[in-house]
């Protein structure tokens, strides 16, 4: 059983803990929060025994093998760095890091600490349903482009509209927030995994009063086709995600919480792709995959898969940064 420590007491952490429990491979032991009472309030119902409000003490004394980091985006780098220096296994919520400089520093640190591993929690990439879609796309004779949508209204945007309320972290440039960083990373993952690194990118953001992008459109140029990304946290979209062939297409009902994917053949007949399972908790597949890697650290095939995931995360990070650069979106963490 893997002993689990957590940083970040949010809704996504609760979903992760439910997935961790369902997997049968993790047991929560240690919780860090800036406020000790909050750490206890959050962790005790899940059976945690150790609580900390000092990050160094958390890593020095905490009884855990794996740390899950779900803090604001700008905090990920420093916290993951500490974890690797303490030879912990690391799961860091997307986006793992703000820019390629941070990612490169983490890669160097991982080389110096071979016992540690780091996974970016891009949950949609681990489901068998997504893998079926990837196989179908790879079998299409011609690719003419794609439209990938990741747009959902955030309840925290209400606080941005209420100018008397504090700015939520996810809409705050100091914490590397915004639509591209939060939901856009899902769309970038799909594009880079299916089609590789684009030749050229451009992002056209719609800015909020808090200084980050609330929504936007990105264009990724490949050899012979383009991919359009629609991302946003200030509106709801019900558009599917589509990959266009010649006469055929692959259609996702949702890019980041996928429940149905269909292949439409040249005769316009729909063929639903049916996976061997589809969990109610979208994080369960990734938590099972992470546990398999952590529990078999010397297995060559598992380590090959791990390195592939790490390099994919690196490519996504680079594309994300290039998209921000194209729109002149800069964060304090870039300095």
UniProtKB/TrEMBL annotation:
Domain GFO/IDH/MocA-like oxidoreductase positions: 153-247
InterPro entries to which the protein is assigned, alphabetical: Gfo/Idh/MocA-like_OxRdtase_N (IPR000683), GFO_IDH_MocA-like_dom (IPR055170), NAD(P)-bd_dom_sf (IPR036291)
Residue ranges of domain Gfo/Idh/MocA-like oxidoreductase N-terminal in the record: 3-113
GO molecular function, one term: nucleotide binding
Pfam family, one: GFO_IDH_MocA
Name the record gives this protein: Oxidoreductase
Source organism of this protein record: Limosilactobacillus secaliphilus
């Amino acid at each position: 059983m893997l002993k689990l420590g957590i940083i970040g007491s949010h809704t996504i952490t609760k979903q992760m803990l439910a997935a961790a429990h369902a997997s049968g491979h993790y047991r929560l032991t240690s919780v860090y929060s800036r406020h000790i009472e909050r750490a206890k309030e959050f962790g005790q119902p899940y059976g945690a025994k150790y609580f900390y409000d000092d990050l160094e003490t958390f890593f020095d004394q905490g009884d855990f093998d794996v740390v899950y980091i779900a803090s604001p985006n700008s905090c990920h780098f420093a916290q993951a760095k500490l974890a690797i220096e303490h030879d912990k296994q690391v799961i860091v919520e997307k986006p793992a890091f703000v820019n390629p400089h941070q990612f490169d520093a983490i890669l160097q640190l991982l080389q110096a600490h071979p016992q540690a591993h780091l996974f970016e929690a891009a949950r949609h990439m681990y489901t068998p349903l997504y893998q079926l879609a990837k196989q179908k796309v790879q079998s299409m004779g011609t690719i003419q482009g794609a439209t990938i949508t990741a747009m959902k209204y955030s309840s925290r945007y209400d606080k941005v509209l209420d100018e008397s309320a504090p700015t939520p972290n996810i809409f705050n440039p100091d914490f590397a927030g915004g639509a591209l960083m939060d939901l856009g990373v899902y769309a970038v993952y799909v594009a880079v995994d299916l089609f590789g690194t684009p030749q050229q990118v451009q992002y056209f953001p719609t800015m909020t009063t808090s200084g980050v992008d609330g929504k936007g459109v990105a264009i990724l140029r490949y050899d012979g086709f383009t991919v359009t990304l629609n991302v946003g946290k200030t509106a709801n979209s019900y558009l599917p995600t589509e990959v266009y062939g010649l006469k055929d297409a692959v259609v996702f009902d949702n890019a980041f919480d996928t429940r149905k994917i269909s292949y439409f053949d040249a005769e316009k007949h729909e063929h639903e792709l049916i996976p061997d399972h589809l969990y109610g908790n979208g994080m369960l597949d990734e938590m099972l995959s992470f546990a398999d890697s952590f529990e078999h650290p010397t297995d060559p095939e598992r380590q090959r898969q791990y390195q592939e995931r790490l390099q994919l995360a690196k490519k996504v990070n680079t594309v994300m940064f290039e998209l921000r650069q194209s729109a002149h979106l800069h964060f304090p963490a870039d300095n």
